[in-house]
Amino acid sequence: MFIAVSQRITKLKKVNEYRDSLDQRLIKLLIDINLKPILIPNIFYTKKKLLNNILNKIKIKGLILTGGDNIGKYKNRDQTELNLLNWAVKNSIPILGICRGMQMIAKFNKVKLRKVKNHVKRNHLIINKSKKFKFDKIVNSYHEYKLIKCPKNFEISAIAADNSIEGIESEKYKTLAIMWHPERNKKISKNDILNIKKLFQISEK
């Protein structure tokens, strides 16, 4: 199954160069569960029609919005991901949002973000509220912002001890979004693997 995967932007100051990049651990995780990631360059912020044509021709069956950097830092990444979301929603394509990806899904659904304390470079407890997905009790955390509320047509999947929203899901939009990074754990969580497989309907063989 081919899935589109967004990328972060890295600036190399010495050569004044901007590069699209992605953690190799995430790529390995996806390949290990029989997904075929197609990395989307952030050049598509002004080429929505071309992007849609490419996604349709490759027959993309899933979308992952990845983490790294806050919304607003690079407008071309923001718009590329909004274009990806527009296409995925219109075509009923399953969507996984990771950290910033969850925040982008919130922005797409008109939900504002707010600064949150004590959620950067630490592990913390979450409470599982999902009936469909299972999560570890302790997750990593690298985000500076939180959702002020749950988007319309979504349900809260998980919350932190401070009541900030750590996960959301939607049957209507075939979406799961989480505020932690599965790929950054020393050992990938079995629950995270099962959740990704369930979302993208990867059969157990």
Give a short summary of the structure.
With 205 residues, the protein is α/β, with parallel strands linked by helices. It has helices at residues 24-32, 48-58, 75-90, 100-108, 190-199; strands spanning 2-5, 8-12, 17-21, 36-39, 62-65, 95-98, 113-115, 120-128, 138-142, 145-147, 155-160, 165-170, 175-178.
Report on this model:
There is one protein chain. With 205 residues, the protein is an alpha/beta fold. It has one domain (2-199): Class I glutamine amidotransferase (GATase) domain (Rossmann fold), CATH 3.40.50. 27% of the residues lie in helices and 30% in strands. It has 5 helices and 13 strands. It has helices spanning 24-32, 48-58, 75-90, 100-108, 190-199, and strands spanning 2-5, 8-12, 17-21, 36-39, 62-65, 95-98, 113-115, 120-128, 138-142, 145-147, 155-160, 165-170, 175-178. The chain has a 9-stranded mixed sheet with strand order 4-1-5-6-13-12-11-8-9, with helices on both faces. It has a two-stranded antiparallel sheet with strand order 2-3. It has a two-stranded antiparallel ribbon with strand order 7-10. Strand 2 (8-12) and strand 3 form a beta hairpin. The longest helix has 16 residues, at 75-90. The chain starts with a strand and ends in a 6-residue tail after the last helix. The mean pLDDT is 96.
CATH architecture: 3-Layer(aba) Sandwich
**Principal-axis shape:** globular
Order of helices and strands: EEEHEHEHEHEEEEEEEH
What is the name of the CATH topology?
Answer: Rossmann fold
The N- to C-terminal Cα distance equals 15 Å
Radius of gyration equals: 16 Å
Q: Fraction of residues in helices?
A: 25-40%
Number of helices: 5
Can you tell me the CATH superfamily? Class I glutamine amidotransferase (GATase) domain
**Overall average pLDDT:** 96
Which CATH class is shown? Alpha Beta
Supply the number of structural domains.
1
Query: Which spans have pLDDT < 50 for at least 5 consecutive residues?
Result: none
Tally of DSSP β-strands: 13
Return the structural class: alpha/beta
Biggest β-sheet: strands ordered side by side in the sheet: 4-1-5-6-13-12-11-8-9
